[in-house]
Amino acid sequence: MKRTLSILYVLVLFSYLFSQEQISTEVLQDSLAVAAADSSTVIAEPVKELSMEEKICKNAADEIMAISENWDVSRDYDILLPRITKYADSFFNTGRNPNEANKNELLILKEKLGKLLETGLSLSLEGLLEANLLWVENELSGKQINPALTGYLTKSNRDKIQAIYDLILLEDSKDAQIIELSSNLKSSYKIIMRYTIGFDEMLDKVYKEVSRVSEKRVYFLYVEDDVQDKLESISAVLGDYIRNNKDKYNAEIKENIETTYQAKKKAEEEVESLSIRVGDTEDEVEKKTLHDSLLVAEEKVDQYYDKWLVAKSNTLDNVYMGEITRFLGILNRFRQSEDIYDINSELIAKLVNNDPDLENYFKNILQIKFSQDLASASKKYFRFDVDKGFRWYRLNVLIFTWMFFVLFFYVFLSVRKNKDSIYIRRIPGLDAIDDAVGRATEMGKPVIYDSGLGSFIEPQTIASMLILRAVAKKVAEFKAEIIYPAYDPIVLQIAEEMISSGFLDAGYPEDHKKDNCFFMVQDQFAYAAGLSGLIARKKPATALHFGSYAAESLLIAEAGFAAGAIQVAGTVESAQLPFFITACDHTLIGEELYAAAAYLSRDAQILSNLKLSDYGKLIFGGLFLLSTLLLTINSEWTFIRDILSTH
Question: Are residues 105 and 198 in the same domain?
Answer without folding.
Answer: yes
